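Narrative of accomplishments. A recurring question from our advisory board has been how the design workflow behaves on a single, concrete structure rather than in aggregate. To address it, we present the structure tokens for one chain from the evaluation set, followed by the sequence designed for it. No filtering or post-editing was applied between the two.
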């Protein structure tokens, strides 16, 4: 690298001596005897060392101050009187070295080489300082990113905790409208400045169930007919596509301008379906912000997550309800089968009873009639025979009831003992 040396002096002998020093060290040498020209050259060229003869510089401190203001990193050597106060002042205010007017050539050469080394060291320090500043900025930016990431992570954790709490809460609720009401409450915690409604879809009718930021009395009669999908602006997207609907300016839209939803959300809205597989249970509707339906990704992520969990919970509740009904039906069927089995068993028993009892009864009844006719003059015997015949009739009635029994019921015979109820 070629070093450039600049001299301000009108002393030709001095010019020659410094020229020789530069020549011997392969330095490029310039000199001027005008402060103005010297200054202009200095600020436009890359000078390593500038040597100033004090005889031509009236204000060395003002000069060096102006040079420093222009961020020039040249090393300066001042030539002046043997005055300690002047030397101290000059060196204190930015000059690298101070030589007397009667300096020796080797002193000047040593001063020039030292000034070049000083400039090189200054440039190295400046470069290191610049690198350190860059590293510091990068570390500072990284620290900011980490702080922001920490804040975002904390927000994400809080959102997941909120969703977890929501899941636990609605797991105890069986009614769809109550689940949708809790959903509005939790969604409003992320969309505090927006109006929100939740709707329930039964068949092809959509009802407003719950709201946030809107007077509930205004919404109690709101419902929409979704039967004509083509005439219903969002029915196709919600029921068939199961995708969100975004309407920025409903009053300027031919479909929405005449819809009652424009009364609720004149600034626009986004409408998300609440569904699982092929079943759509309802929607959540959120107002736009002054005609802008953009929401931060973290809020949309939270909304989608909580809607997904709400849909799953609603599906599970409906599945549990169907399962409970099925179990009750199975219990009824089982009870009916048990009753049929009992009746079938009793029918078989009744046949056996009729066969085993009625035959002897016939013989008893026949013999009793014979005795009654043969000993008709014996009153005591007649009474005994009549009693036998009456009991035969009673036993016959009991076996007939037993045979015609259609329902198996029991009644208490003695404390802790039950008997078959054959009726009165």
């Amino acid at each position: 690298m070629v070093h450039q040396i600049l001299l301000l002096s009108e002393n030709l002998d001095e010019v020659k001596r410094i020229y020789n020093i530069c020549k011997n060290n392969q330095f490029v040498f310039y000199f001027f005897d005008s402060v103005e020209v010297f200054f202009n050259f200095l600020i436009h060229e890359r000078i390593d060392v500038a040597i100033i003869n004090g005889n031509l510089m009236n204000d060395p401190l003002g000069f060096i101050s102006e040079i420093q203001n222009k961020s020039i990193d040249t090393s300066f050597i001042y030539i002046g009187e043997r005055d300690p106060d002047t030397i101290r002042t000059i060196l204190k205010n930015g000059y690298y070295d101070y030589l007397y007017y009667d300096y020796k050539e080797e002193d000047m050469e040593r001063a020039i080489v030292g000034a070049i080394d000083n400039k090189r060291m200054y440039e190295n320090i400046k470069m290191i300082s610049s690198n350190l500043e860059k590293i510091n900025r990068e570390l500072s930016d990284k620290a900011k990113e980490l702080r922001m990431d920490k804040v975002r992570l904390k927000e994400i954790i809080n959102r997941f905790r909120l969703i977890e709490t929501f899941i636990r809460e609605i797991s105890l609720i069986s009614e769809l409208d109550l689940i949708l009401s809790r959903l509005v409450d939790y969604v409003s915690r992320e969309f505090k400045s927006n109006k929100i409604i939740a709707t329930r879809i039964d068949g092809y009718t959509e009802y407003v169930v719950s709201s946030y930021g809107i007077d509930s009395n205004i919404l109690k009669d709101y419902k929409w007919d979704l039967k004509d999908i083509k005439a219903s602006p969002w029915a196709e997207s919600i029921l068939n596509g199961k995708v969100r609907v975004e309407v920025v300016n409903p009053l300027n839209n031919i479909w929405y301008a005449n819809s009652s939803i424009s009364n609720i959300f004149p600034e626009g809205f986004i409408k998300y379906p609440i569904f699982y597989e092929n079943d759509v249970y309802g929607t959540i509707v959120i107002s736009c912000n002054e005609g802008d339906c953009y929401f931060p990704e973290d809020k949309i992520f939270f909304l989608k997550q909580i809607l997904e969990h709400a849909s799953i919970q609603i599906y599970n509740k409906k599945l549990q309800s169907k399962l409970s009904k099925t179990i009750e039906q199975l219990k009824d069927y089982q009870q009916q089968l048990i009753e049929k089995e009992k009746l079938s068993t009793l029918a078989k028993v009744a046949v056996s009873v009729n066969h085993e009892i009625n035959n002897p009864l016939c013989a008893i009844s026949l013999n009793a009639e014979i005795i009654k006719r043969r000993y008709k003059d014996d009153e005591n015997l007649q009474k005994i025979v009549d009693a036998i015949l009456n009991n035969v009739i009673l036993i016959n009635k009991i076996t007939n009831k037993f045979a015609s029994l259609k329902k198996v019921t029991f009644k208490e015979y003695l404390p802790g003992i039950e008997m078959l109820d054959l009726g009165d």
